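Chains adopt folds. We examine one example:
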Amino acid sequence: MIEPTHASIMEPQRISVKFAFVPPVNVPHASFILFFHRVIQDKLLPETLIDVADYSHVHNGPSVLLIGHEAHYSIDATNGQIGLKCAVKRGLTGSLDERIRRTFDKTLHLANLLTKHESLAGGIQVNTKSAWFSIEDRLAAPNTDLTFSHVAPVLASVATRYWGSQPVLSRLGTAKETFQVDISGADGSECRAPTRTLRLV
């Protein structure tokens, strides 16, 4: 097995962030599809968006996918937790800190649109007290203690700025899965994008 290098771990291209919805979620599946189509038609995101795919037949995974050139956004039900996920596939540059912040900013921006858009009639609340962070490249960043030792200090620094206090980080899953970290705000604090750091493109 080829061991990942420090550079491969610290310069990932495939980063994702997911926030769960506050239950109960009573919004019809078709409304999420409509919302994503409106995001494309009304140019609500400053990036190239391509299409919307319906994966309602897939259990324990994405049910609706907004396909973009740089990132995919989805209504995701992995592990039984339905929520909004942003998975950046390409275009990330700079330090690991900058790459993580960019992914958080993109996710929070769409989460804000989702909670306010007329197509969903205010039926969605996003739980920003916690989040799931992942590097979706098992070759570059396997789900091991070594990867966690490299990534955790940077992720904790970023998360502290977004949650306003030091969060609790917990590595999830097994070595057969992608590198995943649960981020939980201390004392019920919520994740907010610092205005001065907001970067979507």
User: Anything to note?
Assistant: The chain has a mean pLDDT of 92. Residues 9-197 form one domain. The first helix runs from residue 6 to 10. The chain has one domain: 9-197.
